[in-house]
Description:
The complex is a heterodimer.
Chain A: H1 25-29, H2 34-62, H3 73-109, H4 117-139, H5 153-157, H6 162-189, H7 202-234, H8 247-281, H9 288-301, H10 317-345, H11 354-377, H12 379-385, H13 389-419, H14 425-452, H15 466-496
Helix pairs in contact in A: 2-3, 2-4, 2-15, 3-4, 3-6, 3-7, 3-8, 3-13, 4-6, 6-7, 7-8, 7-9, 8-9, 8-10, 8-11, 8-13, 9-10, 10-11, 11-13, 11-14, 13-14, 14-15
Chain B: H1 8-30, H2 40-60, H3 68-94
Amino acid sequence: MSTSPTTPAVHQLPEEHYLNSTYGLRSWLLTTDHKRIALLYLASVTFFFFIGGIFATMIRIHLLTPNGYLVTPETYNKLFTMHGVAMIFFFLIPSIPAVLGNFLVPLMIGAKDLAFPKINLLSWYIYLVGGCFVLYSFATGGLDTGWTFYTPLSSVYSNSAVTPAVIGIFINGFSSILTGLNFVVTIHTMRAPGMTWFRLPLFVWAQYATSIIFILGTPVIAITLLLVGLERMFHLGFFNPALGGDPILFQHLFWFYSHPAVYIMILPAMGVISEIIPTFTRKPIFGYTFIAASSIAIAVIGFFVWAHHMFLTGESTYAALAFSLLSYLVAIPSAVKVFNWTSTLYRGSISYDTPLLYSLGFIGLFLIGGLTGLFLACLGLDIHIHDTYFVVAHFHYIMVGGAVMGYVGGLHFWWPKITGKLYPEFLARMAAVILFVGFNLTFFPQFILGYLGMPRRYHNYPPEFQVLNVMSTAGASILALGYLLPMLYLTWSMRYGKVAGPNPWPATGLEWRTPSPPPTENFDVTPVVDWEAYDFKNRPDLGLTQPSGPALSPAHGDD
Amino acid sequence: MSEHIVSPKIYLGIFAALMILTATTVYAATVDLNEHFPGLNVIVALVIATCKAILVILFFMHAYYSSKRTKLIIFSGFFWLAIMLALTLSDYGSRTWDLH
């Protein structure tokens, strides 16, 4: 446990920082400061997280009983569709890159801002416009196609508000592309003197890999959904067999982006974990180069596996064989990361602060999510569990257990930097444990349900599945508490939290060498980097008494 | 990075080449090439269109005068398009194979 070796230093907030340098609504809505834009994104994605969360709550309440009395079957279809659309396109994909990435990438590489600050602001407005279209679609009856928009249901038969939703997602895609472009150019051209590629924090490597997917993948989904809209509105034959189109072509185009999109969600979370683990073990990360390379490998291999979503939808058996094999390959760089994180923990001077609890949770949940992905990549087994709750549990272990744990863990880790304040540590640890327990209670029963044959997207089920469904709904209530708690105490800490000081953990990154909250220009003087990444030994400025061993402890001494 | 100034002569030359290729496309569409080889009409049209796109990218979009890094980024885009097309066609091309 963390105890302060000496009397904790009393810190004061800097007189002027990015939060108080200018005031007024206009100073926020027209800001080009990457840190303020990150906070604008934080508010926006939190809003969509709430919207998606409300739909999820209704789904779980409906599934408490086998016949589901809460909503009609048609409404149920709309609930899971709108849950997926809000969570995937408007929360999970932008969450870490647009919030933490926007805030941290320039700080971590020693730059004053992103390469294109105005384009950065533009990306937020584009996100908002896309979001408004999707909200309009929800408010005018919702849509019932599933977040996957499979044709010809979405392009011909569905009589719900599909068109505004696909327009919204099309528009939102440009926000992702611009963010990715901004990161790539910034990382290539704006690194501080001495910040070589292999001194970059692994979070930056992860953002770089994610940006590649943003740039190369997003245009495909944008155009594909536009084609759905055109087929729906003007009856042009792209995917409708009656008009000469091919529905399987839609699936190819959709998954070409939407499978790599999973890596858009998980790669930045992996970057967060790679920052947190060395900090709370007081050790350089094990296998830096391999972790950096595995991020790029995941981004690239992730583009070769998409048709494993289509094993049972009419794809050729030979193509399925190839995609099954390719899907197994993704496990290799993913395993490289997990083994390196656990090796870093080995013989580390571990302090179980909140961010580390989230990281440990991430490793366990990602492991289960990743390994069950291999089950699904297996052609024979997939016949049995395709389109069942096994799939639902698998991707929630990756997207929620992995990506959201990483995001919330990252928010806790950098919260002192973002706001200059510390949150109540005990409450935060409680929330991390509650979230972990709630998550597993919600989704582990779904593995069993799926294996027993309960199909996904059905509004009712045989009575023998009720116990597991009740467990899942009970877990969802605990999970909701686990999300609400951080929202409350993090908000509380902005006003009442203890002042954090520039480097409360302490951590080695450049972002911790500037005051908390940072000034608008990030650094008073352009930093010169003359140390390797995660080097605790040669950093007397961190205030650690020894390079290793149990006496090392963080300086904040909050507990 | 200083911007490369392209002379109007080159722009006009590329414009002329694009016009000629457009006329060729129109003419090729009126000739029945499929009787020599099935699908040849489409192949010819696509080859001409590709040539036009390359001219536009190289000269109008200044890729010809850009750094190697920019060329690499442009190449990556096309490489990814090739991945998408090749693996998608691997599905369509192998559907007719027998499973014996």
